[in-house]
Amino acid sequence: MEMDGDEMTRVIWARIKEQLVLPFLDVDLKYYDLSVTHRDSTDDKVTVDAANACLEYGVGVKCATITPNPDRVKEFGLKKEWPSPNGTIRTIMDGTVFRKPITLANIPPRVRSWKKPIVVARHAFGDIYRDQEIRVPGAGKVELVYTPAGSEGGEPQRLLVNDFKTGGGVAMGMFNTDKSITSFARAVFTFAVGEKLNVWFNTKDTISKKYHTRFREIFQQEADSRKAELDGAGITYSYFLIDDAVAQVMKSEGGHLWACMNYDGDVMSDMVAEGFGSLGLMTSVLVSPDGKYEYEAAHGTVTRHFRRHEKGEETSTNSVASIFAWTGALGRRGQLDNTPEVSEFAGKLEQAVLDTIEGGVMTGDLTRLTTTPNPKQANTFQFMDAVAERLQASL
Ligand code: NAP
Ligand code: MG
After folding, report:
1. Same structural domain for residues 310 and 254?
2. Which of 196, 198, 321, 375 is most buried by its number of CB atoms within 10 A?
3. Of all protein residues, whose CA lies closest to atom 41 belonging to ligand 1?
4. What is the SS3 assignment for 249?
């Protein structure tokens, strides 16, 4: 199933299907139009339907979409500021987001030791993203209070966070749930087995002896209960203290799955993305705990380029992450349906993209990074034409 989107990525989307997929594959695409205007006219029902369809079919591919803010409400005359489609889909699929860079021989990572992609899995629920905070105005006590709802909760608990004696300050209360942490751990191991990647997980459990320790315990339980599956895939699970993991990542060759708590994943995924080169080379996949996959590019609708495109001006927008969203989905489809030719086709399309760039033809975001002398800067469509030509020749 496919989810269409907005602006420059919508333009690229149509072109991918028309030029790189439909001429070669007999594929029954279930189409959901998640453009902001169609979400508006269906009162966002289309987003919910799409997420449920992704669960039903097991594999989906999504174009970048506008998350409306007040300016967008005015621009399109929307009924309201609809929520982020990605947030809606993530909640319905109870999914974890994995961000994976595409690596190329002539686009060197900024970190010299990185040879293989580092995939970052971010737990996208709770912690400071759902906290309550206070500016403590003056002297006084801040306490943490637990009021059990039933008998399994035991006794009420009351802990002193701080006795502010000489003046105010700040305080916060945050939480996570065993259910969400377990879903996260499951999605991480399911993905790792599918992609044959060793798993790294890290917290600061030396300091946070209950909160972070709970994450560590749940990951360990999950790793233990799936030991045979991990062994079968030839992969390992390692736990690190976050400081140690950060140092190890910089020295490593890459090629592993780096699972992080919410804040760590937010921050570290940006570092990894930039460390590998360009947003146009970063893919993203949402995986549910029972192994349903939704593929997309990590970047947005590239509005600045779309404004130029609308005026009839030339753009050089990188379509690689969007193409790889399609190849990821097609490859997975082939595995599920036991149609290896489909997966093979996806592999050939990926190879055509890599060969095009490594052959020196690329969009403007990459010409600035490449080690290829005098690269040919292609516009949005010339690049896709060059990929189509190579694909055609490889079949
Ligand atoms: P963006 O679309 O990712 O673009 C930010 C800038 O990054 C671009 O202006 C461009 O820089 C560069 N860039 C990103 N992707 C590129 C590509 N494929 N090729 C070349 N350059 C690329 O982020 P944004 O402008 O902040 O957001 C635009 C819209 O996208 C917003 O409405 C937002 O809600 C939405 N969004 C959607 C998703 C999603 O659906 N997953 C994610 C993020 C944002 P230069 O202009 O310097 O060339
Ligand atoms: Mg971030």
Report:
1. no
2. 321
3. 64
4. helix
Q: Which atom of ligand 1 is nearest to the CA of 84?
A: 34
| DSSP state string for 130-155 | G-EEEEE-SSEEEEEEE--SSGGG-S
- Establish if 283 belongs to a structural domain: no
Long-range contact pairs involving 155-158 (C-beta distance under 8 Å, separation at least 24): none
Average pLDDT over residues 213-218: 98
* Dist. CA 173 → ligand 1 center (Å): 33
Q: Tell me the helix, strand and coil percentages in the chain, rounded to 5.
A: 50, 20, 30
Amino acid at residue number 378: A
Question: pLDDT tens across 324-346, in order?
Answer: 999 999 999 999 999 999 999 99
**What percentage of the chain reaches a pLDDT higher than 70?**
100
Residue 137 domain boundaries: 132-173
Does ligand 1 lie within 6 Å of residue 299's CB atom? yes
* pLDDT tens-digit series, residues 299-315: 999 999 999 999 999 99
Residue 301, CA distances (Å) to 9, 32, 292 in order: 5, 17, 24
Cα–ligand 1 centroid distance for 317 (angstroms): 10
Alpha-carbon distance 283 to 279, whole Å?
Answer: 8
Which domain-ending residue is among 227, 247, 276? Answer: 276
**Does the CB atom of residue 302 touch ligand 1 within 6 A?**
yes
Average pLDDT over residues 90-111: 90
Give the model's confidence band at 196: pLDDT under 50 very low, under 70 low, under 90 confident, else very high: very high
pLDDT at 235: 97
| Separation between Cα atoms, residue 1 and residue 217, nearest integer Å | 36
Cα 267 to averaged position of ligand 2 atoms, centre (Å): 5
Strand partners for 159: 144
Average pLDDT value for the chain: 95
The answer to whether the CB of 303 is under 6 A from ligand 1 is: yes
What pLDDT was estimated at residue 95?
A: 82
Q: Which ligand is nearest to the CA of 318?
A: 1
Query: What pLDDT sits at residue 129?
Result: 85
Cβ of 278 closer than 6 Å to ligand 1, yes or no, is: no
pLDDT of residue 233 exceeding 90, the answer is yes
- My answer on whether 254 and 324 are in the same domain is no
Shared-domain flag, residues 312 and 376? yes
Q: Is the CB of 66 inside a 6 Å radius of any atom of ligand 1?
A: yes
